Amino acid sequence: MWDAMGWAGWTVMSLVMVGFWVLVAAGIAALFRPGHRTEPPVRPRSSDPWGALDERLARGEIGIDEYRAQRGGPASARPTRGAGEG
């Protein structure tokens, strides 16, 4: 029964088996390589409290009312950069 395959059949079967295990090993290695991450990159936080407040508003963490309330507190503490700010 096993002799019916011949040497060519055994060679092909052996090469297919080796190729399969190489693909399995490459797939496992691809899962654990350092460049493969699904997490978003960490953004550096602003050291400027006003900048941090602006970023929170832009991300939607706070609403416009809370933003205005917090900006209105120490309004004289922030230097003005232009005529359009405020």
How many strands, which pairing sense, and closed or not: the largest β-sheet? none
Mean pLDDT: 78
Strand content: under 5%
End-to-end separation: 88 Å
Which characteristics define this entry?
55% helix; single chain; mainly alpha; 86 residues; 3 helices
Mind explaining what this structure looks like?
This protein is mostly helical. The mean pLDDT is 78.
Summarize this, please?
By secondary structure, this protein is an all-alpha fold. The protein is 55% helix and 0% strand. The protein has helices spanning 6-32, 49-59, 64-72.
What are the SSEs and their pairings?
Blueprint: H1 6-32, H2 49-59, H3 64-72
